[in-house]
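Notes, p. 3: input format for complexes.
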Amino acid sequence: MGSQIFNFFRHTKRKLLTGGFAETVHLFLKDLEKQNGAFRHPDGKYVVNLSFDLELGFNTPFWEGDLRKALAYGTSAQNNFLSLLGYLREERIPSNVQIAGLLMDEELTMLSLFSPAQREAIRNHRELFALSHEDVAMLISPDIEAGIHGFSHRHFTELSSQDADYEMRNVVRVFEKKFGKAPEFMSFPKNYIAHTDVVKKHGVKCWRADRQHPLTDFEIPLGLWFAPGVLGASDLGRLLAKIKESHMGYFLHLWGHFTEMDVRVFAELLDVIKSAGWKCTTVKNFKQY
Ligand SMILES: [Zn+2]
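Output follows (289 residues plus zinc ion):
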């Protein structure tokens, strides 16, 4: 009973402060009201780009010391990855997936980067830190644009330009080996952007910005974090309607992680997108690079 009352007040407070939207959606809409914040579609279409960063065990609580929690997290990431990817393929939904290079590195080039305890955990739970041949085969689809998410998932803002070059050289190398072509889209780990000259030098044509505007030709807007509990079906539906009211065409980037997204929740959100009359696209098809 007590918690019901608490929830009622919390709900009411949220409505008063943010027009009924979750706070991140509310802030996004405020940004959108500024003309500069709009990311119009040149042909007046309404498109959504669904984008998933894939790091499995990397940069999880594992690295902060709670191994048991991290392994559970890695396992659920693997499970969600396979079921969600299967769904994307079956339903033929254009989308983007960015992969941390170490997951594709059979020789684990940067193992020296990790502490002895971390190295041991990686060796003992190799399946959590590697894409299998089946995983890669699943990612090769005309509807999915595979891209890169750094090599070791280190933050580019904390790297020297030599380290950034090392990251890029290695992620491009392992990506080309697995996919037989060069990666073109990149999401920076944690969206911490730096060393863009190095990134361009290695052939990347576009990346997710750390803001909605202003953008360079190489960027798509940050868009919104696409995770259950952050962007629910009701908020998403109202957001799509509101954008349509105020903009002639729009490109909406929604990004998240396989770890967080359950396939049933995802299917529900996708229904909202479809019934609002929006279509899904890859970044490559939108930017036409
Ligand atoms: Zn990441």
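The pocket of zinc ion is lined by residues 53, 55, 59, 149, 153, 189 (CB under 6 Å).
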